[in-house]
Amino acid sequence: MSQPLRIALVSLYPPDVNRISGGIRAVVHQLVTGFRRRTELEIHVVHCHSDISADRSVTDGSVTLHYLAQPRRRLAPNMVTAIGRIGRQLRAIRPDVVNTHNPSYAIAALKAGYSPVWTIHGISGEEARYNPGLFNRLAFTLGGYYERQALAQVREITAISPYIRQRLASRTRARWHVTENPAPDDLFGLPHHPVPGRLLLPASVIPRKDPITLVRALALARQRIPELHLQIAGRTNEAAYVAQVQAACQNLGVTEHVTFLGVQSQAQMRQRYSEAQLVVLSSREEVSPMSAIEALAAGIPVVTTRAGGAGYVVEDGCTGRVVDVGDAVALADAICELLDAPERYRAMSEAAVAAAEARFRLDKVVDAYLAAYRAALA
Question: What is the model's pTM?
Answer without folding.
Answer: 0.92
